[in-house]
Amino acid sequence: TGYVTLDAGFVNTASCSSAITYIDGGNGILRYRGYPIEQLAQNSTFIEVSYLLIYGELPSASQLETFTEQIRRHTLLHEDLKRFFDGFPRNAHPMPVVSSAVNALSAYYQDSLDPSDPEQVELSTIRLLAKLPTIAAYAFKKSVGQPFLYPDNSMGLVENFLRMTFGLPAEPYDLDPEIAAALDMLLVLHADHEQNCSTSTVRLVGSSNANLFTSISGGINALWGPLHGGANQAVLEMLDEIHAAGGDTKDFMRRVKNKEDGVKLMGFGHRVYKNYDPRAAIVKQTADKILDKLAPDDELLGIAKGLEEVALNDDYFIERKLYPNVDFYTGLIYRAMGFPPRMFTVLFALGRLPGWIAHWREMHNDPATKIGRPRQIYTGHTARDYVDLSQRS
Ligand code: CMC
């Protein structure tokens, strides 16, 4: 069976070759298809970045128009799929609702399941990009007991999502373009991050030739964990807890450093970045801007900045090269926009979707791809004989 090496957590093992995203963790560099994240965040849009990640190049004006139009045409959910949401308890976390609904797309759209048919892959790609915002908004509406709003295809993807989430049928939705632009930019920042836990999951599920919808559903589940995308919700809960206890960051930091009850500084640390996460730097600026406008009295931003300052000057964090990651400041922005903490990881999923799709497609187009099937180091019993039930103590 050959020589097997153990690399728990894949710290040093590459699972594939990829031309999508480049990270230099030591220098805090992130590029999609060669383009620096700072330039994309400032100049591009989520739709354009989705195109870039999936097809490899920035679109021409006509390519962008066609792509946008295709997505626009697929925003509706099958009427029966709408009823699917009624089966969940109202107090359910939206992540399992969203991942289940995405998995259910395999049942409702059976004409786009074949991974070996490029036209079907194209159709499932467009369907996912178009329908995930609708699914996410419906999961939110279900949780607050409000009616679902059909997509309005005269609006852009992010604007439509905001309207379906916060709008009501009884009154026109008053869209704030600055909020829409900020959310669009945050989705750009989340759009890909090479072989992270959820993307590796999407690749692994897809490597068995499972369809795109079901592979993405697997990725959404992996993302939910607090060590990954669930960290944005966990950060806000941590800040709330510190605030409720009187805002004492020193005592909290003491517990983190002593590893008391496994307490971590959520939103800090990263497997690859051993320097400031370039996404966190951009998010921090946005947090200043958005909170100044929407929630100038929010005391949690001050607590977050205080924690960061303490951490960046503390030996525990310096020695371990722990810096704020993308999740540290995002929750404060989402909350100021009106999202409850339970929706934060759903927003991460919306952003990461094009990255997952790009990786799934790259994997299928790579002749070197084989089914993902890691080996193990066996540590169990050596061979022993079966003992009859009457003979067992
Ligand atoms: N607070 C306190 N100590 C930490 C933290 C933290 N947030 N992160 C790492 N450490 C310590 C860890 O205990 C270990 O210490 P020691 O050497 O004494 O055992 C050392 O730093 C190395 O950490 P590690 O756990 O071996 O690092 P990893 O690469 O396996 O884990 C991580 C990376 C992101 C899971 C981890 O840093 C973490 O749990 N951070 C908090 C959760 C979080 O913010 N996750 C979001 C990640 S970025 C976006 C995303 O992927 O979704």
From TrEMBL:
Q: Write the record's keywords in alphabetical order, separated by commas.
A: Transferase, Tricarboxylic acid cycle
Q: What is the lineage of its organism?
A: Bacteria, Bacillati, Actinomycetota, Actinomycetes, Mycobacteriales
Give the reaction(s) catalysed.
Answer: oxaloacetate + acetyl-CoA + H2O = citrate + CoA + H(+)
> Which biological pathway?
Carbohydrate metabolism; tricarboxylic acid cycle; isocitrate from oxaloacetate: step 1/2
Top-rank taxon, per record: Bacteria
The record's listing under InterPro entries reads: Citrate_synth-like_lrg_a-sub, Citrate_synth-like_sm_a-sub, Citrate_synthase, Citrate_synthase_AS, Citrate_synthase_bac-typ, Citrate_synthase_sf, Citrate_synthase_typ-I
Protein name stated in the entry: Citrate synthase
Similarity field: Belongs to the citrate synthase family.
